[in-house]
Amino acid sequence: MASMMFTDCSSISSTLLHVNGRRGAILFRHCVGQLRLQSSASARGCSISIRCSSSPSSATSVDGKAVAKTIRDEITLDVSRMKESIGVVPGLAVILVGDRKDSATYVRNKKKACESVGIKSLEVRLAEDCSEEQVLKSISCFNDDPSIHGILVQLPLPSHMDEQNILNAVSIEKDVDGFHPLNIGRLAMRGREPLFVPCTPKGCIELLHRYNVEIKGKRAVVIGRSNIVGMPAALLLQREDATVSIIHSRTKNPEEITREADIIIAAVGKPNMVRGSWIKPGAVIIDVGINPVDDPNAPRGYRLVGDVCYEEACQIASAITPVPGGVGPMTIAMLLSNTLISAKRIHNFE
After folding, report:
1. What are phi and psi of 12, to 5 degrees?
2. Are strands 291-294 and 150-153 parallel, antiparallel or unpaired?
3. Which residues, in sequence order, are bridge partners of residue 304?
4. Do 150 and 93 contact (CB within 8 A), yes or no?
5. Residue 25 per-residue DSSP state
6. Does the bond joining 156 to the residue before it have cis omega, within 30 degrees of 0?
7. Is 196 helix (H, G, I), strand (E, B) or coil?
């Protein structure tokens, strides 16, 4: 069985794809013939096509930051149009329990993102030692509030709370995180449509779509099987008619299985676990991992790396998301998108 623990590899700078969504798409990157550039008069039309090559020179950087900016611009226009047409502003409520600095940072970033596109945001902060009933009461109030179209409970919750019970209390019509079991169940069933798709997996698939990566009929490997990313990502790929394998902690020969993949989504939380030897030449890699590793030369004493060794992967893959700047910005963009979708659905606005 292949080892799943690896040492760190050195950092590498990436060449980014720049998108100008206001004056049409301008897509530029030096490459070697397998990249088809397109320009369009609208942000929605900007795209880039990546075709697998058996001998790529250097991987294209899948720029989640630029794509997320384009999506936020699209959302801003729709929010403005909705306000002008029917006088409704989409609203997102966030419930934060406890004093975790990372959770507070995430909530602050989500609030700023809402403000940037014109979505109204409300925040409820509860003490670490508050009762589960207090959290449920806040959820119930937002469920009944017609001005709120999305409810997000920031995870993780304190250990004395039943996370499943709390998430289940969120109205499925306002479950913009996509974690309600009915939404996940619908995602898993053929012929059924979830009201919402979890934000990070949705962002991964959106990146593949925006870069015109063909999914149908391709072999895809998802590394990690969490309820938040791995499992819904695998379900989404399956919906796109990919042949999907899931790698987890009990998988034998993960390197061998991963090396067959045309598309890899890594979401396991192990820094630089996926090495170059795991990767099929020309594969497309979406790296969800964001892991701190010690670096005495970095200003903070550490730097962030993904689950995939970027330096090795970019010499073999045809395209890869950088860390940071890849999937992270897309997660928040998809939360904004889900909130807008909810408001449109509730008010029957096209």
Report:
1. -150, 140
2. unpaired
3. 292
4. yes
5. -
6. yes
7. coil
Per-residue pLDDT reduced to its tens digit, 319-349: 999 999 999 999 999 999 999 999 999 999 9
Q: 76 — alpha (psi -120 to 50), left (phi > 0) or beta?
A: alpha
pLDDT in tens, 279-308: 999 999 999 999 999 999 999 999 999 999
- Rounded distance, CA 234 to CA 204, Å? 11
Is residue 45 within 8 Å of 59, Cβ to Cβ?
no
Known catalytic residues are 110, 154, 177
pLDDT at 176: 98
For tokens 């012929």, name the residue. Answer: 191
> What are the start-end ranges of the E strands in the chain?
35-37, 48-50, 60-61, 91-97, 120-126, 150-153, 219-223, 243-247, 263-266, 284-287, 291-294, 302-305, 319-320
Per-residue pLDDT tens digits for 44-82: 444 455 554 444 468 999 999 999 999 999 999 999 999
Full 3-state SS string of 62-115: CCHHHHHHHHHHHHHHHHHHHHHHHCCCCEEEEEEECCCHHHHHHHHHHHHHHH
List 219's β-bridge partners, or say none: 243
- CB atoms under 10 Å from CB of 23, counted, come to 9
250: left (phi over 0), alpha (psi -120 to 50) or beta: alpha
Contact in structure between 291 and 256 (CB atoms under 8 Å): no
CA 310 to chain centroid, in Å, comes to: 18
